[in-house]
Amino acid sequence: MPRATITQVAARAGVSVASASRALNGQIASAETIAKVEKAASELGYVADATAQSLKRGRTFQLAYAVADIGNPVYVEMMTAIQKVTSASGYRLILSSTGDASSSVDVVRDLSRGYVDGLIISPLRVTPELLDALSAVPVPVVVLGRVPGDAGFDTVRADSLTAMRQVVDHLAERSHRDLAFINGPVDTTPGAFRRDGFTAAVAAHPEVRAQSVVATDFTIAAGYEAAIPLLSGAERPHAVIAANDLIGVGVLRAAEDLGLSVPGDLAVTGIDDTELAAVMRPGLTSVDMGAAERGRVAAELLLARIADAERPTQTVAVAPRLVVRGSTLESTERAGIPLAPVDLGRAAG
């Protein structure tokens, strides 16, 4: 069946096309005209052409969220929070995977061709090429992460330095003296700041001996591969701090395959406090980096920037919170510790 047109709606309502268009687009029109036009549109099953409306208004009512790995549960949690805010304001959210640094630049350039009204990006690596591409985007941009202070973007940051201090303090308080840190690639933003945070946190505990290992990626497989030789050696650590929960799960699997008890033989912690950390057995002690809060703030900053392009740029840091679970608690202690509830209905990536 042919799609009804605005001309047909106007004819049935007995008004001009211009009057019908004004009535349907919320512009100035009499109550009588609006009622007649809406009745005619309903009877004909008229649906406005979103593309045409976007062209007329100079807006697409679409926003983009670009991340390096759409399978990472942290990004899924951020996306859910972003979408909740943006959909309430009438925007559709488009998800884009950027992959490596060069691909990020390509994605940003594609998104700058009029497809969206704004962009939220969470890059793993912030290169000069990426900053140049972001600066050339003709729509507002919010960065989830860190950029140079003069870059001119609204940003929302995690506090990796405080997160690492909370983890190291927790383990040191439990008399763990030999700590190992399994990081992801240090040329990434989280890798660099979590490395620096670990170094600073250990320096505050002279009684602690520390070593660091760099995994090839922030994934379960990379965590497992890095953990096997670390846990098989003669200098096996008392506790392992993983740079994120995915690496932490890899460590738990490696410990199980090597016959090590967690936390009896080895304490393990992660970072991000994803749903994955809560459903592991034992549950993985982790640091809540406020993924949902960062997503919510980023979305609100983007909408505010769309409404007022001249407003001063903002940088917001979200505070971390240590969540203690069974991977660092003996069974006798777990009964006295209120553990975070598990929401099995929430996506875990």
From TrEMBL:
Q: Does the keyword Transcription apply?
A: yes
Residue ranges of every copy of the HTH lacI-type domain listed in the record: 4-57
Q: Does the record's keyword annotation contain Cell inner membrane?
A: no
Q: Name one GO molecular function term.
A: transcription cis-regulatory region binding
Q: Where are the transmembrane segments?
A: none
Q: Name one Pfam family in it.
A: LacI
Q: Where is the signal peptide?
A: none
Q: What keywords does the record list, in alphabetical order? A: DNA-binding, Transcription, Transcription regulation
The record, for InterPro entries, names: HTH_LacI, LacI/GalR-like_sensor, Lambda_DNA-bd_dom_sf, Peripla_BP_I
Q: Which PANTHER family match?
A: LACI-RELATED TRANSCRIPTIONAL REPRESSOR, RIBOSE OPERON REPRESSOR
| Name assigned to this protein | LacI family transcriptional regulator
